[in-house]
Amino acid sequence: MTEGDYILGKKPDREIPADKIGKLELPKEDHQAGRGDEASGRNSPFWVKCWSCHQYLTRPLGPPGEQAYTCANCGAVNTI
Ligand SMILES: [Zn+2]
User: What is the layout of strands, in order, in the sheet containing 21-23?
Assistant: First the structure.
């Protein structure tokens, strides 16, 4: 993981309506790294680093209106 491959989640500075909050997902632990890289590269997830627990999580693709996501690890809301 290098700088620029992820978005740094920010602590929200305002209340975010619940219907605007998506869910971050913990990365799947598959052991297929090195296999099928080209295929997975086409739909590579967006990475978000949680401001609270510093875990890297994946953000679902769209809908674009959602700009806040709940961390699956610690439950903190991250805005991006
Ligand atoms: Zn977290």
Answer: 21-23, 68-70, 77-79
Name the pTM for this structure.
0.72
Cα 13 to averaged position of ligand 1 atoms, centre (Å):
16
Cα of 21 vs centre of ligand 1, distance in Å, is 14
1 part of a folded domain = no
Q: How confident is the model at residue 42 (pLDDT cuts 50, 70, 90)?
A: very low
- 20 lies in some domain: yes
Which residues have a beta carbon within 5 Å of ligand 1, which is an ion?
50, 52-53, 71, 73-74, 76
Structural domain count of the chain: 1
Mean pLDDT for 44-55 is: 89
Ligand 1 centroid from CA 43, angstroms: 23
Residue 2 belongs to some domain of the structure: no
Task: Note down the domain range covering 37.
Answer: 7-79
